[in-house]
Amino acid sequence: MSRVKSKKYAGVYRNQLLNGDISYSINYKDDEGRKVWFTVGKKLVGITEIFAYNKRSELINKMKLGEDPQLKRKKKNIITLDSVAKDSYDLKENHNRNNKLSRRKFELHITPILGHRDITSITVNEIEKLQATKIKEYSPKMVNTIIGELSTVFNYAIDKEILKTLNPTKKVKSLKVDNARERYLNQDEIKTLLEYTKEDEQVHIFILLALTTGARVGAITKLTKRDINFNTKIINILDEKNNERYTAFLCSDELESLLENRIKGIKLDTPILQDNKANLYDQLKDKVQRILNTLFNKDVTDPKHRVVIHSLRHTFASNLAINGTPIFTIQKLLNHKDINMTLRYAKLAPDSGRDSVKGLGL
Asked: Which of 30, 99, 150, 219 is the most exposed place for a label (fewest CB within 10 A)?
């Protein structure tokens, strides 16, 4: 007869034996999240459900204290996912211009969830759970990129014969990417956001920079005193994605005043928005996303309609298009290498060809 779950005690099971006796067993999850079964003993020798339950609690407590709860197996030397990822990214450091950005994505999105795990024990189900967790906050395209970073590390492990099985990410279905609509803020929403953040100088300046330059988060966090020329009103921005610098313009009086005041006493190469020793990129992403969630994402379930930090870049480009800015100028201001990336904003142009058709005179 198969195990029957106790109705009174969590994790306790009984098994009716052929001789009429009852055997009690328990299960719990080990420190790597795997289910472990343990046979406690038989009823004829005095084992009861409550005894089995207490034994389960004892084993779980030992595990929490770092002890081997069953005292049967020695903990093997594991090779963590993080350690393999470090070797993988280190190897590409001088050969891949996007390596720093890729490493940061891995450390931000994968390390907190799977980084400590033995790379040989990570399952397809766990990767699907990671995917499901990330889609709650990020676009399908971004989630696919995150899983892609994980896949790259697994491929490295296979190449180095650390992993003897197939790459588990290959069994995880990619999310369908729909770029039909890009969420951006209208003028009223922009005013609401700026009003909400004005008491936090760091965040307020970040929002103004994002909305007036379209720069990505990583680029803004790296801006220093050296990158801003108040005479020419030019901001020199490092585009990590394309590994090059490009020009943005300082066209907001409020932003100019805030920046001039903030850079006083700051060293030439210190990031302007650095307030403390915390990782500036992570700090700003967390603070700004919480604000965006509070203001714009209540009851929003479709990821396409959520406002995320990258929506500030879309807002910059969308409002340029709405104001009639030529598409090639928008491409230059966003530092897009492929015009097709910029063409998504063309539909927002106020004319969209109507005046040209009227000009035919027919």
From this structure: 30
CB-count burial class (<10 Å; 0-12, 13-18, 19+) for 305: exposed
pTM of the model: 0.60
CA–centroid distance for 234 within its chain: 31
Among 71, 68, 171, 83, which residue's Cα sits nearest to residue 119? 83
Q: Look-up: residue for tokens 């779950």?
A: 5
On whether the CB atoms of residues 126 and 169 are closer than 8 A, the answer is no
Give the whole-angstrom CA distance, residue 285 versus residue 278. Answer: 12
CA 341 to chain centre: 22
Q: How far apart are CA 361 and CA 223, in angstroms?
A: 51
User: For residue 277, what are the CA distances in angstroms to 95, 267, 281?
Assistant: 30, 15, 11
As averages over each run of 10 residues, the pLDDT of the chain (362 residues) reads 83 87 88 80 88 88 70 64 95 80 92 94 94 89 94 95 93 82 88 96 97 95 95 92 87 95 90 91 93 94 85 95 93 92 87 60 59
